[in-house]
Amino acid sequence: MELAGKRIVLGVTGGIAAYKVCDLVRRLQDEGASVQVVMTRAAQEFVTATTLQALSGQPVFTDQWGAEGAKVGNAMPHIDVSRAADAVVVAPASAHFIAKTAQGLADDLLCTLVLARRCPLLVAPAMNVEMWSNPATQRNVQQLKADGIEILGPGVGDQACGETGAGRMLEPQELLEDIIAFFQPKLLQDKRVLVTAGPTFEPIDPVRGITNLSSGKMGFAMARAAREAGAKVTLIAGPTTLPTPRGVRRLDVRTAREMHDDVMSYVNHAQVYIGVAAVADWRVQPAAQKLKKSLGQPTLVFEPNPDILASVAALPSPPFTVGFAAETDDEVAYARGKLKAKRLSMIVANRAQDILSADDGELTVVDAEGATPLQRASKLTQARRIIAAIAQRLGAD
């Protein structure tokens, strides 16, 4: 329940994307938020107030002077509705609404509420590509940003009008993730963070290889948590089908050497390096053709892969370097040894049999000051705890 206890005022303006708001309301509620809908007159041409009232479980406000407004406090819904909110989210936000908000106009209930609010405002634009790219719209969007208003999107793709380009409202799941991220503390604001995740794959022949059971879930959770904390995140991922966290730049690699080369190319620009990937320690010289069983047992000659963590920590001016140690026993003791041997800033220890491919787990954060256990929780929750630990140590430094 990522939004448990949060009170969201959801403003809906006129546009075909208004139909997606029905899904958004449900997703917000599934994460624990209460949703109060406010609609413009144009919005009601696309979806009815009755529908959104049924979904939200609360009366929908449509008019400053309507019957529902008369029932609120001193008959001033533009004041009372916003005062109880943790955030106002406008989705879809039409070009007209954006222009009025940039100019501070208050000619309907939603614009008046936005002008009178004390809580944050998040705006999800939705319009034709030419309307979005019009200089007037871009000036208005820049004014909203300058006023501290969060702009969510827009997306790029096919539009209802038949054209293609920027201007689509983000999908409900994307909006949900951005709203959740908005409420996370910005502990690494504008920091550059490099994360590795997933397994590597070392080929033996064109169809076989050496790999491991890492799903990449913990590394992807770390990338998401760092982005939620305000960081600019680059994720270097081994073979995995996990979706890229929103707002994260992703580079895909296959082998340990490919991961090493990409890390060393980007790490000089990072203030924090988080090595979560389960990198193969060994590789072999792969056969050019498939090894045939009929030819007998093959002889594999192993050679070590580069140690990415140690390479990063050994740089003349290394970033804050965080490792992960997945062990089958004595994980904290092994983690302490790796921390010292590789000269890491911090290392996170876990039991491999408990964490690999799982959605949650117990972890222990180890640094020069000692070991701090993190009680069992989801990987995203653990990732946020680790980001907080990193931020605390960066602040102390």
Could you write a compact summary of the structure shown?
By secondary structure, the protein is α/β, with parallel strands linked by helices. It is 34% helix and 25% strand.
Would you kindly provide a written description of the structure presented here, covering whatever features stand out?
The chain is an alpha/beta fold and 397 residues long. It has helices at 21-30, 49-56, 67-70, 77-83, 95-103, 109-116, 129-133, 135-146, 172-182, 217-228, 256-266, 308-313, 331-341, 352-355, 379-396; strands spanning 7-12, 34-39, 87-93, 121-125, 150-151, 155-158, 164-168, 192-197, 202-205, 208-210, 232-237, 249-252, 272-275, 282-284, 302-304, 320-327, 346-351, 360-367, 370-378. An eight-stranded mixed sheet has the order 12-11-8-13-16-17-18-19, sandwiched between helices. Strands 2-1-3-4-5 form a five-stranded parallel sheet, sandwiched between helices. β6 and β7 (164-168) form a beta hairpin. The longest helix has 18 residues, at 379-396. The chain is elongated, with a radius of gyration of 25 Å. The mean pLDDT is 93.
